[in-house]
Design a protein that fits this description.
Helix content: over 70%
Radius of gyration: 20 Å
Number of strands: 0
Strand content: under 5%
Order of helices and strands: HHHHHHHHHHHHHH
Number of helices: 14
Structural class: mainly alpha
Number of domains: 1
């Protein structure tokens, strides 16, 4: 029962994080469409703002000692989970249509499944493959149904940068699972975003320092605040909870919730209407997540194999 409760906490944390991410794509796109906010400026807002928030939060949490070896690992985790992921996504999103960026994002579970098989020796079972494909079909159905209403044109370079973002995040989910399990979310993220802010400062400072902040209205400021406080600080607090409790492929499957949220919000604010396509797509997304949770991990398969071997010895 305890395991089920922990798994539920992981699922709820990932659901919450991806609901926030689902709102972030259109909000970030509206900010990037302004002629006085570049991807580098918004990126430094995210990295620097989140670093400050995580270090402030750490003052109110139990202090955890992090050895030098893990500090170095956290730098590597920051490179894949924050820096490559966020920088390539923001620049890619500024160069392509939100629809294209959303479609490319659906590759995260597929890439995660492949890396898990190669690095963690996790089996690629039929349930896992079917679940990933079912979820992807629902996400793509939603995205394609919204394509006619989307703005912007497709751009190959932008799409490739979004693919790099997806691949780097998938790598982060798999390679650093053990590291994530050793520390609290605040400890992990205060170091990861500190490294991200410092590494991005030389590349982003030029654009940031030349930004005309007098043009920041309350509306623009609130959208930037959401990107920093919601889609970065809060979302990245939740993700490690799911990483600690669930397998990487399951964690990555929640990416499919993002286009579902974006579509639902469009319906609620009157920009779109509910139809059978959205209903079927929603069922496919959550069915895909459920099917992947039913797939067996390497540890489960090895335990079953050992049990069968023990039973055969007893019967011999």
């Amino acid at each position: 029962m305890m395991t089920d409760d922990k798994n539920l906490s992981g699922h709820l944390a990932l659901l919450g994080a991806n609901v926030i991410f689902g709102l972030n794509m259109p909000i970030s796109k509206t900010v990037l469409s302004l002629d006085f906010v570049t991807p580098y400026t918004l990126n430094l807002f995210r990295m620097g703002g989140a670093a400050i928030l995580f270090w402030i939060a750490s003052l109110f949490c139990r202090r955890e000692k992090v050895p030098v070896r893990d500090i170095l690992l956290l730098f590597a985790a920051s490179l894949f989970g924050v820096q490559l992921n966020q920088v390539s996504f923001l620049i890619g999103l500024s160069m392509t249509a939100p629809v294209d960026a959303s479609i490319v994002a659906t590759t995260v579970p597929i890439i995660t499944m492949i890396i898990s098989a190669l690095y963690l020796k996790e089996p690629i079972t039929w349930k896992k493959v079917i679940g990933v494909l079912v979820g992807a079909s629902g996400a793509i159905m939603l995205i394609m149904s919204a394509q006619s209403a989307s703005g912007g044109e497709s751009h190959l370079a932008g799409n490739l940068l979004c693919l790099l973002s997806a691949a780097s995040f998938a790598t982060y989910l798999v390679l650093f699972k053990k590291l994530i399990g050793r520390y609290s979310s605040v400890t992990l993220m205060k170091w990861m975003f500190l490294f991200a802010a410092l590494c991005n400062l030389p590349f982003c400072w030029g654009d940031f320092s030349s930004t005309d902040f007098s043009r920041f209205t309350w509306d623009v400021s609130l959208r930037v605040a959401y990107v920093v406080g919601g889609a970065t600080f809060l979302a990245y607090l939740m993700i490690p909870v799911g990483q600690r409790l669930l397998r990487p492929t399951i964690v990555s499957m929640y990416n499919y919730v993002q286009p579902l949220v974006a579509s639902l919000v469009a319906v609620l604010i009157g920009l779109d209407t509910m139809n059978w396509t959205k209903g079927v797509a929603a069922i496919l997304v959550f069915s895909g997540v459920y099917i992947v949770t039913l797939s067996k991990s390497r540890a489960q398969l090895e335990a079953e194999k050992a049990a069968r071997a023990e039973k055969n010895r007893d019967n011999a």
